[in-house]
Amino acid sequence: MTPAGRAFLSAGLALVVGGCALLQPAAGPSADAIQAVAQQLAAARADRTVAEAGSESLANAEQALEEARRARGDAAEQALYHARRALEMAQEAGKQADLRIALERLARRKQDLQQQLAKRQEQARAQARLQAAFRGFDAVEQTSRGLHLRLPLPNFSPRGLRLSGRDREALDRLVGWLHKHPHRNVMIETFTDNTGTTAFNLRVTSAQARELQKYLVSHGVNAARVVTRAYGEAYPLEDNATPVGRVHNRRAEIVISNESGVIPPRATPPTGH
Amino acid sequence: MDFALPAPIRPVPILLLAVLLTAGGCATLPPPDHSRDQAVTAMQAVREGKTPAGLLKGARAKLNTARQLERQHRYALARRLYEQVVWDIDLARSQSRTRTLIQEREALEADIAKLKRALEEAGK
Fold this sequence. Notes:
The structure holds two protein chains of two kinds.
Chain A: H1 3-23, H2 31-46, H3 48-53, H4 55-70, H5 73-133, E1 139-142, E2 147-152, H6 165-180, E3 186-191, H7 198-218, E4 226-230, H8 243-249, E5 251-256
Parallel strand pairs in A: 3-4
Antiparallel strand pairs in A: 1-2, 2-5, 3-5
Helix pairs in contact in A: 2-4, 2-5, 4-5
Chain B: H1 11-24, H2 33-45, H3 53-71, H4 75-123
Helix pairs in contact in B: 2-3, 2-4, 3-4
């Protein structure tokens, strides 16, 4: 065989042996690349959420990483690629598990707030209805003792109660309301400022309470439904040191019971200013 | 050493055979039908707009490359790319689910902030 023939033959054999390898050069992943994925995998395993939620993907990643270590060339590259993707899938599963927990918590919070808002809106509507029903009273509020109405009595003198036209209108509304709610009882509480002696103030407020009771009874409210309490200068609303404070302290507070008809006594002991 | 071939074997036909085999490359492998079908099905199942664009774009390019390689009978490479497309799309879909959950969380947080404001308003 001639040297030229040998050269041709050698080249031909080399091409045959090379075959696919020439078309698909196979370097394979570096040891560092495999190590980096192994470290990420270990970190993912240490994360409880990822380990639980992404257990299947982590198992796939581990298997693929083993394959990447065992195989050569392109097959190893492909296995490492698979390991990376499986690892990322596990991490996504972990994120999703965390998000689902957060969503549940937020949904509960939202529901709680919706209930609070609905309750507050209903209270506001009820308050608006009460304000309309008891127009003429200074304050109308639902308390633990019952429905509380405040009527200012700035001009009371020991000679008698001088009710203004506005006061009468307010009391007439109360009378009308009591006629519509026959199971509700009323407690009339009267207060004054600290001008004068305690005994005098008690007498004054007792007279005020009786006058108001008489007004209601004279307009058809059963006397058994109306009780009175005179507190004299006790329970001031404001400071008695100022003229305005004293005016505000001269007042009647009418407590209307709920359907049970019971009105609890005042909880806090009287304090003088 | 003297290298001698039997008489019927001549260098030129051997060289021709070698060139043919090389040109054929991995033509001896079967076409990657299964992995191609999986990749195509996965790609079709992707919901546009919800899947992260980058990963999806890459997978689509990879699918086209794999098809070209398959047409050139470079089946081993094509098969590997088809497999990668499936993994890429699996991940893209998982990321899409994560994104949906994040959006749900943001919507709930916005609702809660709105409710808190409404409660403050109602309390005034």
